Amino acid sequence: MSELLRYFHPVLPARKLGKSPVKVSFDGKGFAFFRDHEGRARALLDRCPHRFAPLSAGRVRPDGRLACPYHGWHFDGQGRGKSPSLPQLTNCDVQAFSVVEQDGFLWLGREGASMPTHETTGYELAGVFAMRFDAPLFVALDNFCEDEHTPYVHTYLGWLERDVSTVEFEAENGPDFTRVRYRARQRPAPIARLVGVRSGDWFHNDWVTRFDPVCTTYEIFWSSPETGERRPLSLRVPVYFVPLDERTTQLSTVVYARSDLGPLPRPVMALLKKLALGLVWNEFKDDRAFVKHVKDTPFETKGMRLGKFDKPLIHNHKLLERIYWQRPQDSTPPKADAPDAS
Ligand code: FES
Ligand SMILES: [Fe+2]
User: What is the pLDDT of residue 340?
Assistant: First the structure.
C-alpha cells in the first residue's frame, strides 16, 4: 500500500459523499468511500477479496455495510467481510483505511497517520474545491511555487507585464519549508473592485510550502499604495497537492476569508466569501489550462536556464525527495541553490 498514506491527504470534498459509494484514486490505487448507517465516512480498498470487483460500484445496505455489486459479499467500516451464500466463510476481509472528516474534506490515511494543521484564527471558511491537473505532482507544484507566470497565465489576480519591474520578491529556503513573498501592482480587474480592490493597489501573495504532506498555504491581500492600509478582504488558502497517480494531481483547496473592516453583517460576509472562493477557483482554472502544456517537464532541472523566481523550485524538489517521498538523497552538493538573477 502507498507509503504516502503515512500522511493524511484531503482526497474528497465531504459534500461529494452521500448515500452512494464513491471511487477515489490516490497514488495509483483505488479506494471505495462510503458512509455507514451512522453517516460516518469509511474507506476500503476498492477491490473485493472474492474476484476483485470494484466495491465502489456497489451499494450501502441499511445496516451500513458496503455490498459488492457482483456476488453481494458485504463489508463493515473495518473491512470485515461476509458472504451471503457462504455464511461460514472466513478470511474474506478487505483492507480498511482511516478517514477523518475535517475542514470540508475527507482525509485518507493509514492508522496512526499524521494530520496537518493550519492557523486560521480570525478567518472564516469560505469553501473548498478539488481540481484535477493533468500533470505529475512536482509539475503542478513548480507552477504554484512561482508567480513569474502571473501576467501571462492569469486573468484577475496579480500584475500586468508592464508592471514587472515593480515586482518585489523574497524567498527563503528553510530546513523543511520554503517561504516566498511577492508584492506588485494589481492589474485592472473590475471583479476585484467588488471586494474593495482598486487597480494599482499593492497585491501581496505570501506563501509557505511544507512537505508532510505537500501543502502550500497562500496569504493573499491588497493594500493602498498611498497609506499602506489593507483593503477589506484577506485570504488564507491551503492548497494540498494530492497525487492521484504518477500523471495526475488533485489540488485540494480550502479557502478562508477575513474581513479587515471588522465584523460585517452576515449576508455581506456570505457574499464576500462567495466572491473569494470564486476568485481563487477562477485563477486555478487558468493554471490548470496552462499546466497541461508542461506536463512532460523532467524532474531534474539540469539544462534549464533558471532565474531568481525559481529559487524555491529547486529547494522544493529536494524537500519533496527527502520529506515527502523519503527517497535516498543524492550526496553531490547542490549547485543551483540560489539561481543567478540575471
Ligand atoms: S467479486 Fe465481490 S462478491 Fe464476488
Ligand atoms: Fe498561477
Answer: 44
What distance separates the 2 farthest-apart alpha carbons in the chain?
78
**In CATH, which superfamily holds the domain spanning 124-324?**
Naphthalene 1,2-dioxygenase Alpha Subunit; Chain A, domain 1 (3.90.380.10)
113-141 burial, b at 16+ Cβ within 10 Å, e below that, comes to: beebeeeeeebeebbbebbebebbbbbbb
Binned at pLDDT 50, 70 and 90, residue 330 comes out as low
Contact 188, 198 (CB under 8 A): no
Q: Of 191 and 204, which is predicted with more confidence?
A: 204
Q: Where are the domains of the chain?
A: 3-109, 124-324
Atom in ligand 1 nearest the alpha carbon of residue 68: 2
Same fold, 3-109 and 124-324: no
Task: For ligand 1, atom 4, name the residue with the nearest CA.
Answer: 71
Q: Of the ligands numbered here, which is closest to the C-alpha atom of 148?
A: 2
Q: Per-residue confidence at 328, pLDDT binned at 50, 70, 90?
A: confident
* Cα Rg, the chain, nearest whole Å: 23
Whether the CB-CB separation of 317 and 299 falls below 8 Å is answered with yes
Upper half-sphere CA count for residue 50 (Cβ side, 13 Å) = 20
Do 92 and 75 contact (CB within 8 A), yes or no?
Answer: no
- Mean pLDDT value across residues 60-81: 98
For ligand 1, what atom is nearest to the CA of residue 48? 2
Q: What residues have a C-beta under 5 A from ligand 2, the ion?
A: 287
DSSP secondary structure, 284-299, as one string: HHHHHHHHGGGTT--S
Instruction: For the chain, give the number of residues.
Output: 342
- Give the model's confidence band at 34: pLDDT under 50 very low, under 70 low, under 90 confident, else very high: very high
Q: What's this model's pTM, rounded to 2 decimal places?
A: 0.94
Q: What angle do CA 224, 227, 233 make, to 5 degrees?
A: 40
**In CATH, what number does 3-109 get?**
2.102.10.10
Q: What is residue 121's DSSP assignment?
A: T
d(CA 132, CA 24): 12
How confident is the model over 255-285, as pLDDT tens digits?
A: 999 988 877 888 989 999 999 999 999 999 9
Whole-number pLDDT of residue 262: 77
